User: Fold this.
Amino acid sequence: MRSQTRHGSSALALALAATLVVAGCSQKEAGSTESDTPGTSSAAADLAIVPEVQIDVTGAEVEAGEAQEPADPAGDGTATCSGVSLAMAGALTGPNAALGQNILYGAQVALDKHNAANADCQVELKTFDTEGDPQKATQVAPQIVGDATILGLLGPAFSGETNATGSIFNQAGLLSLTASATNPDLTANGWTTFYRGLANDAIQGPAVAKYLVDTLDYSTVCVVADNSDYGIGLAEQITEGLGDAADPSCAAEVKTGDKDFAATVQIISGADADAVFYAGYYAEAAPFAQQLRDGGVDIPFVSADGVNDPQFVSQAGGASEGAILSCPCGPAPEEFAAEYEESAGQAPGVYSTEGYDLMTIMLKGIDSGITDRAGLVEFVKTYDGPGLARNYKWDQTGELESALIWVYKVS
Amino acid sequence: MTGELIHALTVADPLVGFDTAALVDNFWALTVDGLTYGSVYALVAVGYTLVYGVLRLINFAHSEVFMLGMFGQYAVLMMLGFAPSGNAYNLGVTMTVVYLAIALVGGMAVSGGVAVGLERVAYRPLRKRGAQPLAFLITAIGASFVLQEFVHFILPRLTGDRLGGVNAQQPIRLVVPETQFTLFTANITNVTIIIILSALILALATDMFINRTKFGRGIRAVAQDPVTATLMGVSRERIIVLTFLIGGLLAGAAALLYTLRVPNGIIYSGGFILGIKAFCAAVLGGIGNLRGALLGGLLLGVMENYGQVLFGTEWRDVVAFVLLIAVLMVRPTGILGESLARSRA
Assistant:
């Protein structure tokens, strides 16, 4: 038995050695074509997603308005209230937890400022974890509604769960102020307590499409979508908005969870396009962007809020450089980013700024002496004031009157 | 009404595209790329097929053995001081080879260790108690989940969030794909060459090991008739450990090769679909049959690559399984038949 073992391992060792020799030979050819700076990474590691311009639904750039002083959650420090609380509902655990946490931590910053300044008005923030799952959200919603101290809700975070629970909050007359649910149909339900703190998807798609065609002068764009509801819906709107610029011969569909896009890269490298638009999430976008670059496709990589995440940059590395990412979410100003980082222990993410702004609005309502749910709904309905991300003023349906899209660039 | 429906399905918005032009245009590129993928399937499929041959057990946790191999080679590279960045390192030829070799050994060691450990912890106790085949199958599925969730939840805590967790690992890239030469119309990259040749050599070595060595004869003997093999002085338990070890080592090697091709694929769930495909390949070639697994892997890789261009990329997995069903309808025991013991031909 012993000698056999040795025999066996020597065969394996032989295989190993042979593999190495082969790897060595082929690598030699690769190495000779590259620059000779051993041990260094080939691109700068300090890439980040930085805000570029703000655009409206026609894709036209909107100059940033005069810098108005954003609403301060601290107020004048003389507010009085007792026994009131606000709720936050969204994914706090599970695969999409990062998004819910971004909102929660943003709201927490506003709350801490408020409570530190107003000794006589300590507002409690109650958190409700839905895992982003509509079914779980419908179980959680009655708890929120049943707690009489809760005057307003920040959330729900996702469109699916908002759709499932909106009527419950509407019946209870509880303000539902979302920082991230962007499905356009949500405000068409006739709910009187639902307000959206950012632009919806029906604005993002056309705005980005027009921006690509009119401002960046792209005449041929390959639209690639994943098979999620989000990806399919966004791709439809982008394709429609692009019109003739969307090239059907290089349009492709991929699957969420895919990591290899060789066939799609092959198709796109064959088309003479000006840009690739990817409708989907960062988990697939990162390898896709990487493989496009590896496959010699050097046209700009364009995507939307699903990819607007630091994970995209860290996964794709140098291949993410120059990528154009849209988002209805506003960038975090420096001062807020520092406060957020100190409070949450991480950099602000997508929708953190919205979480802060919307929390601030509700706190201002409470500070103004409101003690019931109906009062807070009325307060938001007539609210008009600047936040960190934008000016907040809502129309009849609960949409923002001026809903703009931010264009970010990885650089 | 029916006419309208047919019209809607076929003309207005075809559910299935049929892009023969794209297939013809990219035929050679797709073939080479399919072989690259198929090589990885083939190496992983060997693990399924050997264990099935010896134990009649479908080791569903083998996909996690592969997944942990990816983490193994990644961890080894991290220990060597490589910082994940998403950008490629440029180390020069010699050092790249050395580091790839170390990563290969690391991946194989982890996968081999996990495979043998799995046998020890999960399957041997069942065998000692004479459990039913179904208990083994359920255990295998359970072990698969345990290993996945270990990487998902526990590994990040043990490593201070450097390994595992919900997101894919930030890649450490040692080799950037660059075209070396053109075969027919296909651009052959260095990565393709490394993967296909490495896999070929490993496959040949395994084949030789199974068919030419005493230990290989032991494996074949146990597969053919465990009782007689034991009577002839073959230690069944040792053969079983060896079988898991070989499967694990090959899965670890496949893990490194796959990572060269798909640097962003290192994630707790990254082995699952690939494992099912490799299992598919093993069945396609004839499960229990070593050469069948190799052939099945290559065939599956190439066919699904053709299929995804012909019908659309979202049909890739469908093509793989339809192919499997079609082959099993004609040859229920797979292309080369279902025998490890008689696989000398």
Notes: The beta strands of chain B are 89-90, 179-183, 186-189. Residues 16-330 of chain B form a domain with the ABC transporter involved in vitamin B12 uptake, BtuC fold (CATH 1.10.3470). The CA atoms of residues 11 and 44 of chain B lie 41 Å apart.
